[in-house]
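Quick entry, no commentary yet.
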Amino acid sequence: MDVFRIAATLPVPAARPAPPLQLSLGPGVLETTQDVLRTESNGSREALTIWAGRPRDATTVLVSHVITPVVEADHDWLTISLPERTAIATYLRGEQLLAVADIHTHPEAAFLSKIDRRRPFSSRNGFYALVIPNFATDPPAAGWRCYVAIDGDWREVPLLDAVNGWPG
């Protein structure tokens, strides 16, 4: 796994806010995510990052880390092995961070597929899944779609509702 720490200073560790979470992106999180996913996808396979951070207040998490797990992937699927998931969980606990979203690419249209719905990184209430079209070759944020886990199901939500200051 690769970890990109974006924020120089972090809020003190605190309990996870109750859903619905608001995400606040540290400077450069969006661009780092786009660059990493474009590189990892290499125009031919799905790629994934995880956003992590700490609560800023009772409703908002400052996204300060972009984590890129080792995945097995092809043109239209990816999977994270159990040892890699364990390594991510260990890292998050050690750094006192909360995983708040997985962000992954699709070859064309951005949507949450049946496989995405069955095998998310997390299905915890309030966890987000963002999908980026065209293997992340478009400008940052272009065509991204956002889904939130609610009671074992996924619902699409506007990015402007989920991410403070979302461009668009």
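second:
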Amino acid sequence: MTRMRRHGLWTPVLAGVGGSAISLAVGLGRGKWEAIVIGEVVTAIAVVVFYLAGRHDSDVGAVLARRADERQVLIRMKASRVSAVVGVLASVVACVIAAAMGATYWPFEVIYIAIGASYLISLAIYGAAPGSDDAVTGNEADHVDR
């Protein structure tokens, strides 16, 4: 069985794993146990907030609990797109600033190259070529009954 029985737990679990990994990496990397404790407390609070938000009967709750309808899925896709655009722009700006200051800038290049590569790979996986009608119209052909 590859699907989780309780879909609403995916977001809190991923928030917990990600938050714990970040707080452990920062705390162990800097040798500060206080950073680990504070990071884990904040992670626990975030997990509880995500879990409780997912239980509410609202748009945000439906998206967090993975029980969204088509409109909410569209909202989630648009929010993901905005997040990707902001991530690319932030990494490009950080790369330019780091290069201007004479600092190491290749990590920022890796970030936006990875984002661009993942975009192209996802187009190949989901079947929309960059110049096709599906890419322009938003994959409306997928919704046509054949």
